[in-house]
Amino acid sequence: YGNETTRLSAPPRGTKLMMLPVDVNARGNAGLTARERIFVRTILHMIHDSMKTAISTAAYKQFLVDNDCFVYHCELTNTKAYCGLVLVHLVLDVIKPVLLVNVKDLESQLERVSLANCGNNVRNLTSKMLELRQEIITQKGNQHSVDESRMLTLLFKALEASTNFDFLLVVKMEKTSWIKGHPPTSVSTVVRTVNNAFTNMVHEDTWGKVDERDQQIIALSTEVRFLKQSYESVAIGTRMVVVAEEEMVASVVVATAAQLSRPRRLALLNGGSRKSARLVPTLPTATR
Fold first, then answer.
1. Which residues pair with 140 in a beta bridge?
2. Which of 145, 160, 153 lies closest to 179, judged by CA?
């Protein structure tokens, strides 16, 4: 704040910033300065609106606590003007753009974790997901990290990709408890339960067991694939026989045509029947 004669400086906390009216029609340098001020105020207001759109409503309300730093009051028109550059400064004090990119990448990695890329090992899967979540908390802060509900959704989605029927029953029970809210379910309790179930199944040598229904599906898929290959082989063989027969008929036609007179040979090669060939007899040479 300040004016043409004092050095601009940051206002102290609690200061009510006032916006003085300007006369854009004033003569000389005063009018030029007034028009420039109106232009700058418009730009600053646009920056404020852009920042308000870029951040969440909850985050913007937190910055409104310090609105005495970027809100100007006009007593003449009873309106407010916003300094967007000050708001940008406040936002960048809290949010680091580089960290936002890194956290976005970590969140994408968390969504892509699956049993397949963890070696079909439940302990590896849960450890990987918890490590990524902790790294997000370290980068972004606990209040902006992946919440319990989102984490449980991703965890159940990854666990439900298992092909072990008994393990899926355990996962289903935990998910049902989470949905009903009784007993209270948390990420730590679900991780502990599924890890214990996985460890017991590995010790009992039942983890790699495939459900009988899945075995039937695999068997049916194999049979369908075999029938399809057999059909394609028969179709290829049939086409080869047809081609061979056509080639044989063509050779017989050519051989027969070679033994006929020229008119009959032309008629035969042009697709005419034996009857049509007789319609063009060879005429004897007339003699006197």
1. none
2. 153
Separation CA 51–CA 193 (nearest Å): 44
Residue 102 contacts residue 109 (beta carbons within 8 Å)? no
Q: How many Cβ atoms sit within 10 Å of the Cβ of residue 86?
A: 21
- Tally of CA atoms within 13 A in the half-sphere of 219 that contains its CB: 7
Strands 71-74 and 79-82: antiparallel
99-135 pLDDT per residue, tens: 566 778 888 999 999 999 999 999 999 999 999 998 8
C-alpha to C-alpha distance for 268 and 213, rounded to whole angstroms: 64
Six-digit token pair at 124? Answer: 């590896």
Give the max Cα distance, the chain: 139
Q: pLDDT tens digits for 49-72?
A: 888 888 888 888 888 877 777 788
Q: In this structure, are residues 103 and 116 in contact, taking their beta carbons and an 8 Å threshold?
A: no
User: Residues with Cβ < 8 Å from 189, sequence gap 6 or more?
Assistant: 174
